[in-house]
Amino acid sequence: MSATPPESLLADDEHLQVLGYEGKFDRSMSLWANFALGFTYLSPLVGVYSLLAVALSTGGPPSIWWIVIVACGQLLVSLVFGEVVSQYPIHGGVYPWARRLWGRRYAWMAAWVYIWAMIVTITSVAEFGAGFITSLFGIELNAETTLFTALGLLLFALLINFSGTKGLARIARIGLAAELIGVIGLGLYLLIFQRKQEFSVFFDTMGVEGEGSYVPVFLASALAGLFLFYGFEACGDVAEEVADPARRIPRAMMMTILVGAVSALFSFAGYVLAAPDLEGIVSGEIADPIPAILESTLGTVGAKVFLVVTVLAFVSCVLSLQAAASRLLYSFARDGMLPGHTWLSKVSPRSKVPTNALIVACTVPALICVLIYFNDGILVPVTSFAILGIYVAFQMVVLAALRQRFKGWRPAGPFSLGGLGLVVNIAALAYGVFAIVLLAKPDSGGTFFQNYVVLIGLAVVLVSGLLYLFTARPDKKSTAPEGDAREVAAEIRRRTGRVEVQ
């Protein structure tokens, strides 16, 4: 990696000025608060709780290794993002990165896919979180209580986000503590004091492959990791609210991946090794095994305490998702790329947050929650698209970065991979394509719609985005900089008088 003397760095506002913007936000978010935002968005507690039974029934205990595989792949992606955000520490993440690395139309499609993926993710987390909240307060879970609890969760997160960056950072840190207690703390307790299985079980397929090869079954269980490791890019979505973002955000993104991987491994392994009836889980007879595992290992009171921790994690996850989505909408609107962009790009002079974009990031998921209330069958289809959409948007940035490298771009931010950048970029793209293929692979055994629902969802979003792009032509109304990676890098080097050390 290149070494950059601290005195040669641009000041935050000067760096923003080089990129064509002026500072409007309160830079009160520290490295740890930025890490907490990304980590609670990634939320290994929510991910493991949601996926454990499906992963085990599909691929057996060896499906845990997908956590390691995907963490390594996404770490490569975070390294590429780190170089990009270090040169472009501006709000919005995927959208401005794609715009400055490629161009307006390309950025429009990347952001369009990513916005809808984030909106749907907010909806699904609120819907699933409603089950834990109603359980905590002893409320019967039905369609009505799910709807009103999900709406309440969205509104509660909106009010916290309205309070400003400091309020967001404070709750994110609380959510981080809850996540670490719920995944690492509980995982260690289960591993040390409640272990009922041998560690060799993680190399035992337990017959899930039947009479055939285990390879297709193992590939089918990839969701054990693929559904876990995203959210780290949220660290860059709030770049203009972070002090010294060019150095801190790359660190925060990598910390999110590494700590998230350790947390998920402890949690997944703890549940598996503490399961009193692992065979029943793998066979699919036990559809929701975690409550039974917690009840048998922690007792009624302990399980209730863990429920409190889980609710805190869900609240923090929705909060972080709303914050990230609002900054993406703000960045998109600031460049004149959305209908109502003047309204969406307004920043509150009191709280220094994009309140109107926050309202949209709460209202649209709330409307989808209402649609789900009238037809709960659409929950799976809409959420199935979300993860694939996020991976597609990520890889659009990775591809754009690789394209610029072939044109001679050398990242000029304080975080740089130096000569390794090209190799890492190619490896990150190869991993991303592999992940997209796994996510998009049609199921079998159901109806055509059930088998192809993920691809249908992505197609709908892509086609609608293209139709709007080529009819409304938002790109023609936007004059913000684009495709200037090499020029900006040269200007940063000129202003800092810095010579890159390989």
UniProtKB/TrEMBL annotation:
It is a multi-pass membrane protein. The keyword Hydrolase does not apply. Its main location: membrane. The chain crosses the membrane at residues 31-52, 64-85, 106-139, 145-162, 174-193, 213-232, 252-274, 305-332, 353-374, 380-402, 414-440, 452-470. It comes from the Bacteria. It is found in: Membrane. Keywords: Membrane, Transmembrane, Transmembrane helix, Transport. InterPro entries: AA/rel_permease1. It holds the Pfam family AA_permease_2. PANTHER family: AMINO-ACID PERMEASE BAT1 (PTHR45649), OS04G0435100 PROTEIN (PTHR45649:SF26). This is APC family permease. It comes from Leucobacter albus. The lineage of its organism: Bacteria, Bacillati, Actinomycetota, Actinomycetes, Micrococcales.
